[in-house]
Amino acid sequence: MGEVQSLQRSVIIGARGEIGSAIVTALSARGDKVVALDIAPPIGIKNDNILESTIDVRNNDSVETAIGNANDWLGGIDVFVNAAGIMRRGSIFELSDTQFEEVIAINLVGAFRTTRAAASHMLDQKSGSITHICSLHALVGMPDRSAYAASKGGLVAFVKALAAELGPKGISVNALAPGPIGSGMGDPAPSRVTIVEATPLGRIASAEEVANYATHLSSKDGRFITGQVIAIDGGVSTTLLT
């Protein structure tokens, strides 16, 4: 396994989202050089160690170009975090084939494409950290979220398989599964109140807390963790499972 540097070269997908932007901030504060990728256009972050660019995870040419350009600018990729994702709510009778397939295309197939591209640049150095932002919905069943749950449940299986595949190459692969954090993609207010009431720690997580876990997993101290799904939910998944 290659040596883990203290200041690393990081690529974040979904960098304009609440969790993604918090991860960009946390890794930059650590001293990393960061490439922040999102389907939305750059917002003009004024930081010489952050490069913003666009990516469409539904398009393999876009993925290969964006990740390749990131690798060139960084001089290599040590850390890859995928925080891209969408949710489509509705019962199985309300969701169209197109809506279901769109969620799978972005949340699961997009994760496959971007991970493949990033991991290919980690092979020569025999070192790397890959983290996927998953969801509470991969761990517990809730109504009207079948497409999202399927995509994130598939992502959990993908992470575990990749950890076994890439571990011998010095690359760790994990997932973070936050509960609601207040993002636009989260659950509506009444559902959130119910979840908070069911949460042993009595509150929801912040995007910054999720970013702190992503930062730790990519650090030297976190690299022996692989193939794990870490729930950042104040214990609500344990109560919902009982």
Give the structure's gist in a few sentences.
With 242 residues, the chain is an alpha/beta fold. The chain contains seven helices and seven strands, in the order βαββαβαβαβααβα. Strand 5, helix 4 and strand 6 form a beta-alpha-beta unit.
Task: Jot down its keywords.
single chain; 242 residues; alpha/beta; Rossmann fold; 41% helix
Structural class: alpha/beta
Helicity range of the residues?
A: 40-55%
Total DSSP E strands = 7
Overall form? globular
User: Describe the biggest sheet?
Assistant: 7 strands, parallel
* Beta-strand proportion: 15-25%
The SSE order reads EHEEHEHEHEHHEH
Q: What is the domain total for the residues?
A: 1
CATH architecture identity: 3-Layer(aba) Sandwich
CATH superfamily: NAD(P)-binding Rossmann-like Domain
Radius of gyration: 17 Å
* Count of helical regions: 7
Mean pLDDT: 92
At the first level of CATH, what is the class?
Alpha Beta
Low-confidence stretches: none
Strand order of the largest sheet: 3-2-1-4-5-6-7
Question: Can you tell me about this structure?
Answer:
- It is a single chain.
- The chain is an alpha/beta fold.
- It has one domain: 3-Layer(aba) Sandwich (Rossmann fold).
- The protein has 7 helices and 7 strands; from the N terminus they run βαββαβαβαβααβα.
- Strands 3-2-1-4-5-6-7 form a 7-stranded parallel sheet, sandwiched between helices.
- Helix 1 (about 20-30) links the parallel strand 1 (about 10-15) and strand 2 (about 35-40).
